[in-house]
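Inverse folding, one chain.
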């Protein structure tokens, strides 16, 4: 249903954008199309003779005037507003209906290829890179694979109580733009945390950084170095909160 909503939304945006462009050219600013064509042409011919001083002047003057013309167009402001509304709607939708990742427990397949190449095993991932939306580990038992993802806007929840961590060091690497990162760790697992944030808060096993600004925060449990099972957490955010707690 949400995918259909997105398709309909973009269809309406394109249709309204075309209508606004025609209205703007026909009734509000008849010379806009000519002005835009002239500045684009100036940029094009300036680029063709960019090796000369005159070409450089034409190119940058055309590029600048084209940008100014586009910024003043009604259709540009409309698309900017439409993108903002879409981001807000997607964010609230992800809060109400978080996406649950459901990896299947299957044996990895050996990739066939050149006999001279080393046999490789293809493995599934718990998470995926997403520009928008909330991601969370499933509520049932799942097979562990190291996490290395990038996100845009949305929350990420990693619950390690529903999986069996391998011997040695498991790695969780999450980079996001805006949102909260929550990691739930069993009591018998040693942890190392390396967190980089431009603006946000951090709560790591009750050790709180109420307002971190352009900081790097690092913690490590006492028995991490000698532990047989341990988790290395590497996170980075532009803005958002980090919570690492026991479960």
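Residues assigned per position:
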């Amino acid at each position: 249903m949400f995918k259909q909503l997105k398709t309909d939304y973009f269809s309406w945006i394109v249709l309204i954008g075309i209508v606004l462009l025609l209205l703007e050219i026909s009734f509000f600013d008849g010379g806009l199309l000519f002005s835009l064509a002239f500045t684009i042409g100036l940029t094009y011919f300036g680029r063709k003779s960019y090796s000369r001083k005159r070409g450089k002047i034409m190119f940058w003057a055309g590029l600048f005037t084209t940008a100014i013309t586009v910024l003043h167009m009604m259709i540009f402001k409309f698309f900017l507003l439409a993108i903002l509304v879409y981001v807000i709607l997607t964010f609230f939708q992800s809060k109400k209906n978080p996406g649950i990742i459901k990896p299947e427990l299957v044996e990895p397949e050996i990739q066939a290829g050149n006999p001279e190449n080393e046999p490789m095993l293809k493995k599934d991932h718990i998470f995926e890179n997403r520009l928008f939306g909330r991601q969370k580990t499933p509520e049932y038992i799942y097979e562990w694979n190291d996490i290395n993802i990038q996100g845009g806007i949305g929350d990420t929840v990693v619950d390690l109580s529903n999986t069996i961590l391998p011997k040695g060091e498991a790695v969780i690497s999450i980079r996001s733009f805006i949102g909260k990162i929550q990691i739930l760790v069993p009591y018998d697992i040693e942890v190392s945390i390396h967190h980089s944030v431009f603006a946000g808060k951090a709560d790591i096993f009750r050790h709180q950084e109420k307002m971190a600004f352009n900081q790097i925060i690092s913690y490590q449990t006492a028995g991490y170095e000698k532990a047989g099972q341990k988790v290395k957490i590497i996170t980075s955010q532009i803005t958002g909160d980090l919570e690492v707690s026991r479960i």
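Residues 2-28 form the longest helix (27 residues). The two ends are 35 Å apart (CA to CA).
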